[in-house]
Design goal:
The chain is mainly beta. 15% of the residues lie in helices and 45% in strands. A seven-stranded antiparallel β-sheet has the order 3-2-6-9-10-5-4, with helices on both faces. Strands 1-11-12 form a three-stranded antiparallel β-sheet, with no helix packed on it. It starts with a helix and ends with a strand. 30% of the residues are buried. The model has no long low-confidence stretch (mean pLDDT 92).
Length: 161
Amino acid sequence: MTLDSEKLRAAMRAWSAGVTVVTAVHEGVKHGMTVNSFTSISLDPALVTISLQQSARTHELVIQSRAFGLTILSNEQVKISDLFAGRMSETEDRFADLQTETLVTGSPLIVGGLAWLDCRVVETFDAGMNTLFIAEVVAASGSGDGLPLIYHNRKYWELSE
């Protein structure tokens, strides 16, 4: 007997997570999506994991480029989170009005985030409707100063100092 996906979704609303945007570029085409399924899994070697739905455009670009950028969003970047989550009307280029930079792989990183990770995929695993990507962090920037954007129970929250 398989658990109803809506019951799992409802239960997972109790999990609070930071908000990131994963971006990728391949042959001049770039795209990104809001992701909270991100974890640091090793400091030596520097490894992280993300999970992306296989039907997502960003998933295909990560598969093709074998690289992605990850921006950890600040509490001032709710609109960016919504844009990359597809909650705003779809625009041809989600990056059109954003300032970005690159580090090593060429994946765009969003200026104003708390931190940025530039990653090369080293392993992939099919995980139901998703792919689990394990990636080596080849460059990182940011001190963690500032307040993160937090997602809990289908709403954004802010930490207080």
